[in-house]
Amino acid sequence: YGGPAKRTRIVEEFSMALQTGNVSYEVGQPLEYPFNESYNEGGPSVTADNSQLFFTVCQMSKEGYENCDIYYCKKDEYGYWGSINSVGEHINTPNAWESQPSVSADGKYLYFVSNREGGEGGLDLYVCTKKINGEWEAPVNLGKEINTYKNEKSPFIHSDSETLYFASDGHPTLGGYDIYFSKADIDNLEFGVPTNIGYPINTKAD
Length: 206
Description:
Elements: E1 15-16, E2 29-30, E3 40-46, E4 52-60, E5 66-74, E6 85-86, E7 98-103, E8 109-114, E9 124-129, E10 140-141, E11 152-157, E12 163-168, E13 178-185, E14 190-191, E15 195-196
Antiparallel strand pairs: 1-2, 3-4, 4-5, 5-6, 7-8, 8-9, 9-10, 11-12, 12-13, 13-14, 13-15
């Protein structure tokens, strides 16, 4: 009491809760090392075989800029998550925000959000394709059918690897951000005109 005021830092902890019944979960606990070693971590996406985990790691730069990038880890032969690795400097950039990864069920496609230069404006959706050697190709902007001059975010690729759900405030909305879906020709990753999933899920609110 009477000393200098302390600044409270809000940290988003990467946590897990086990299922205890058909619809019930325990309270949950933060994940242990190697997780939760950074400023903020979260936004997980797991392949269907539960072998690869993609998530966002945010670090505060010396200039006070919170830069978010995408990292991944794999399960080892004993069922534990291994070391955390960047998806690559050709995807993660030092001066832009890469976040909210969504990996396809087969692990071949990685969708994410970025505000990097060269997009359609605001936050855009991108996709990377995995090469035969396991590395990721350069990100591809999903184009003007999906991205607008405003913001598209929160991508989720369905287990069919062809249906993409996302939020946008740039397409015609009921108000604020609405949720949309779009079907892709998976052979060339070209998505069709998004469909607003409508009321009562979408409302005048975000």
